[in-house]
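Justification of computing resources. Each target in the renewal requires a structure prediction run like the one illustrated here; the chain below, 365 residues long, is used simply to show the kind of job we budget for.
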Amino acid sequence: MLIKTAVRGGGGAQTLLPLLLLLLLLLIVPFNNAAAASNSSAKQQTLQTQSDSYFNPKLPPKSLSASKKFEGSSDLVDLRYHMGPVLSSPINIYLIWYGRWAASHQLLIKDFLLSISTSDRRAAPSPSVSQWWSTVSLYTDQTGANISSSVLVAGEYSDTRCSQGTHLTRLSMQQVIAAAVRSKPFPVDHKNGIYLILTSGDVTVQDFCRAVCGFHYFTFSSVVGYTLPYAWVGNSGKQCPEVCAYPFAVPGYMGGGGPGALAPPNADVGVDGMISVIGHELAELASNPLVNAWYAGEDPTAPTEIGDLCEGLYGTGGGGGYIGQVMRDREGRTYNVKGRRGRKFLVQWIWSPVLKACAGPNALD
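Resulting structure tokens:
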């Protein structure tokens, strides 16, 4: 339309010069737009795929990894507070070692638990376990009190003879706690206590490997004599590592289509897998100890909690079957947080009530 008007007006070179300038402008603008789009895309890409210390075994498509929405965030998650208590006072963990445990495995798990507390003078460098727990500490009760950032291993009890047998049900597990309380090694700590049962690799548990890798609840006064928050996690190293120690073991059905098993940070598939489940259960127990505080869904007997919302997600770009971008040490072992005494761990992210998304201290975006 503009060309026809210029020709129709006449005027020789004076008329052709504006025409040539217009054609040149039309050629330059698309090029600049393409360059701008390319620069914008580069800025949005959050995964540092060229880094020597960060890696993702199998990166998701760029269209997904460039968006935080791929890391679990959603406006549709209806996580609500149901007016119950959270563990806002310093948290005392009472450990029950059920079955036979190697001392080195016990020390590894205790190092993880003691790395949670920000009051430890031997705090680990970033990204640390205590920074990971800071997401959990964002949750409050109705008074505005946050979940405590102080975590202590207050007592230990070893049931090496498996007093309730080598197969535990949910009810007989409470008998294990009752025995520990009645024999007086443990106090009845209503306000600050968490009773954590850890079963060795030769102990089977109701629904273990089939439906659960760990769970938390509270004891019945008819069984234990008191209502106490407790959690259980089992060592899946021999029974079902591909189910409960993923991504250190992968299911056979994944074949060559998955990222392959990752090297555990402490060279033990079962215990390293346990530690991530322990973190999951402790986060949920702290935020929903009596199953009437923080959870999504309408059924308190089957709540979706702050760990459930981020299951299988360990770093930036994770979700949809991808664990996300984590770190790898010189031996090729994978981790995403650091603990006391130089320990390294791989623990799943936790749902943040502030970001409305899964979060962890190793985030790159």
